[in-house]
Amino acid sequence: MTFEVAGIRAKADGPLKLAVPRGALFGETLDILDAAGVDTSGARGDSRSLIFETDGMTLVTMRPSDVPTYVEAGAADVGITGKDVLLEQADRAVYELLDLGYGRCRMVLAGRKGDARLGEAQRRLGMMRIATKYPRIAERHFESTGRQIEMIEVKGSVELAPLIGLGDGIVDLVATGRTLEENDLEVREEILECTARFVANRVAHKLRATEVDELTAKLRAASGG
Amino acid sequence: MIHPIPPGTRDVLPDEMRELRRLNRALIEVFEARGYGEVATPAIEYDEVLARGDGPATAGAYRFFDESGDLLALRSDMTVPIARLVSSRYAEAEMPLRLCYLASSYRAVRPQRGQMREFVQAGVELIGAPAPGGTVEVIEVLEAALDAAGLDRAVIGLGDSDLYRQLLTEFGVEGEARDSILARLASHDLVGLEQELREVEGISDEQCATCVALSQLRGGREVLEQARSMLGGAVARATARLQATYDALEERGVVDRVQIDLGLLLDLGYYSGAILEVYDPALGHILGGGGRYDELMKRFGIDQPAAGFALYLERVHVAQMEEESRRERAPS
To answer: If contacts are CB pairs under 8 Å, which of residues 112-171 in chain B contact chain A?
Structure first.
């Protein structure tokens, strides 16, 4: 039987493990890795595998929101994920080494088009009901602007909430704005801008310094930074 | 029937206890053999005494009133209680003073993270021995402790806690900007660090670049050479301090597993000068840390330089187990 202390999991030696986000960031992440000289052909196929060996590196694919978890525990040495994920999980101790520049999107407060509910709720009830998948980012935003909200945390399509009366507005990530448009919503406030970031485990950053620094330099060059 | 215990605490059953006991004994033997006498202090102290340690990590997380209305706190580390003990019991004693401990401390946890509220540390405090000699002795004891635990691949990071504080003063960065830059450095958020630096008025591009580049300098002696080519008297002074420690370690033949790390910054408020962090390749988390706290003793009324380290016992045990199974997999 193994036991766990403080969520520690063992980190095996061998090739450097890179956590790669599936989903919206997947394609551009593989492109930038290619440009940085990492062979990603394995991960590009239709394979259902989650782990791909390349020359001197192991690519581990996962949900973007799992990347900080794996990297903090050292199960992956380095990883790529969105700034939105890092902010939402700000208590995960990972080193943020590089802004990769792609995957640009905005975290916004949105409400129904031409609907005064957000303002009215604030004026008459002293608080807005906000549906979001990003409770910590939303909480920080409203706290820092001195407003009180009632947080409604949802997991799926958050656009749905204000349409059928769950909440006065939403805090969500917007890339093109099409989803908002199609659901008759509009941006009311911009909260912050997010891009993909390169992160490292604290111990890997110290003990595999050369490999981590080399990959950072290559990614920096590939992202034009 | 299950009766829960608070999250972040745990029971230890005989199989684990046997191994922990063996590890404990090995560590205390190393400390005792080098003249460090074991001490115990109460887990609860007056809040006002612990608060002298300063810094967010040493303030007691669990505080309560006793029956006569005094505010008590559970200790959050052993360095501050030992500083208190030395000032009350050994104020007139001949220095240096060598003390060691094996004790539980208590810290607040972030919810749902499986972090421990109660954890055991094994460590030493060397009071009255200045840098670099005192630092070198502490590192030697730490190396012997890691050897005794069977962690022959473990690495000790050696940094300087005054480097950035002094450098930012030199660059004229004060107030809120300074605090948030130091916080970015401590959490190693390089993207945020660059943003914060660029927002500071009157700081040059070269000064920005120096701060960022310094935080990435880690390795052997060559790191000191690289640092020397950088801006700032603070860098030159920190490099000289690190060089003196590193040279002395080399002379004693214990430099192999020491990694100079100019990016090291601990969040405990009382450190000054050399700081240490301990890693093992088998574990993604930090095994322990320490450093010099030359100013802390003054807050307790004696002016003595001091240094020490603490290892998280449970983490060392996990690393020990991982290293064992690794050796079994790949017999050399």
So the answer is: 113-116, 119, 155, 157
Give residue-wise pLDDT tens across range A124-142: 777 889 999 999 999 999 9
pTM: 0.88
| 3-class state of residue B276 by DSSP | strand
Do the beta carbons of residue A11 and residue B282 sit within 8 Å?
yes
Chain A: residue whose CA lies nearest to B157: A206
| Residues of chain A positioned with their CB less than 8 A from the CB of B116 | 5-6
The reply to whether A4 falls in a domain is: no
Residues A120 and A182 in one domain: yes
Task: Identify how many contiguous H helices and E strands chain B contains and give both numbers.
Answer: 12, 12
Distance CA B234, CA B163 (A): 6
- Cβ-in-10-Å burial (0-12, 13-18, 19+) of A46 comes to exposed
| Residue A192 phi, psi dihedral angles, 5° rounding | -165, 170
B38 and B101 in contact (C-beta within 8 Å)?
yes
Q: What is the ipTM of this complex?
A: 0.87
User: Are A85 and A139 members of one domain?
Assistant: no
Which residues of B fall within a CB distance of 8 Å from A75? 284
In terms of residue numbers, what domain contains B42? 1-158+272-332
Question: Among the three residues B248, B265, B282, which one is the final residue of a domain in this structure?
Answer: B265
- What is the least distance, in Å, from the CA of A62 to any CA of chain B? 19
Instruction: Return all residues near B6 (Cβ < 8 A) that are at least 6 apart.
Output: B117
Q: What is the domain count for chain B?
A: 2
A179 to chain B, minimum CA–CA distance in Å? 30
pLDDT digits (tens, 9 = 90+) for B87-115: 999 999 999 999 999 999 998 877 556 67
Q: Say whether residue A73 is in contact with chain B using an 8 A CB cutoff.
A: yes
Structure confidence by residue, pLDDT tens digits, A199-209: 999 999 999 99
DSSP H or E stretch at residue B81: helix B79-89
Per-residue confidence band for B59, with pLDDT thresholds at 50, 70 and 90: low
Same domain? For B187 and B233 the reply is yes
List pLDDT tens digits, range B197-240. Answer: 998 888 899 999 999 999 999 999 999 999 998 888 899 999 99
